[in-house]
Amino acid sequence: MTLTILITGSSGFVGGRVATTARRQPGTDVRLLSRHAPQGPEYVHGDLCAPPSLRGVCAGVDVLVHCATRVDGDAETTEAVNDHGTRALVEEAVRAGVRRILYVSTAAVHGRGPFRGVRPGEVPIAPASPTSRTRAAAERYVLDAGGLVLRPHLVYGEGDRWVIPGLVWLMNELSATLTGCTALQSMIDVGTLGRAVVAAALSPAPGGGVHYVNHPEPVPVADLLAFISRELGEPGGGPALDVAAALDRAAGSPLALHHLGMLTTDHWFVDDTFWKAFDCSPGEGFAAGFTRAAPWYRAFLQGRKVS
Would you say residue 113 has pLDDT above 60? Predict the structure, then answer.
């Protein structure tokens, strides 16, 4: 039996890896939603910013995997894509009788923390940014339709232009690295996340709900920064600062304060049941994943062309 899977956001960081993984699954017919003119037989035209264009995109689809997210830009476009676009897409999936709807969201829907050893359902939805608010709205549409929501926290690996590059930027902005930070961060490499999404999407196991999808072992911030220094050079260049001194130095930069506040606060989410329920391995962990991705990061940070 062939399962037809429709993936949104396949040109993005996570969605691209999900699409690549899905293509390798036997008995799977992959379709990719695109707002541009179809580029081949896989592509289905539809624009989340134009809900009428979504009519019919789920015809004959067994599984919808929704990875498309607007994370930057103006608030109106973010709301159009993440909120209104998701609502229209889910309505279309329900209308077409799609068997499983899966949405790749973010643990940021809970706000800024601290979160230490938190399991699904233990903390409220309290988004602190327009992007997170619209993604929380998207979650609601999926859950109300009986769908499955996956919440990774920090996703890294080849193609990451936000997490590790953002930390390097922060250290350079401070002209220093940090010392004495005891925070823990949940992380997952994009390859493992792609496998996890496809495993959950194609699983015969019934049911929806919410799962955190991160490696079971959280990453101490001290280890995270040590790996960045070892593999990518010494960011910042100056003497190390403790957290209080770093916050003082960042006082004139709201963006640096935002990044520093997140980095130095626990964001540790626990959900071992996900890996068991969908018979998927969480992978080797941060040390191995980051070491593999380091050459890509070095090329990206040096401004060289990267694939």
Answer: yes
CA angle 52, 56, 60 (to 5 degrees): 160
In this prediction, residue 198 carries a pLDDT of 98
pLDDT at 305 over 70: no
Strand partners, 266: none
Map residue 78 onto helix, strand or coil.
helix
**Strand (E) or helix (H) holding 104:** strand 100-104
**What is the 8-class DSSP label of residue 266?**
-
For the chain, helix, strand, coil in percent to 5 are 45, 20, 40
Q: Which helix (H) or strand (E) holds 96?
A: helix 86-96
Of 214, 236, 216, 210, the closest CA to residue 225 belongs to 236
Torsion angle defined by CA atoms of residues 229, 233, 235 and 238, in that order, rounded to the nearest 10 degrees: 90
pLDDT in tens, 200-230: 999 988 779 999 999 999 999 999 999 999 9
Distance CA 36, CA 52 (A): 15
Name the one residue in this structure whose structure tokens are 């936000």: 162
- Just give the CATH number of 3-301: 3.40.50.720
What pLDDT score was predicted for residue 245?
Answer: 95
102 neighbors 200 (Cβ within 8 angstroms): yes
Mean pLDDT, range 161-179, rounded to an integer:
92
Q: How far is CA 53 from CA 48, 133, 293, in A?
A: 8, 24, 37
User: How far is Cα 104 from Cα 74, in angstroms, rounded to an integer?
Assistant: 21
pLDDT at 184 over 90: yes
**83 burial level (CB within 10 Å; 0-12, 13-18, 19+):** buried
* pTM summary value: 0.95
| Residue (of 137, 64, 70) closest to 103 by Cα position | 64
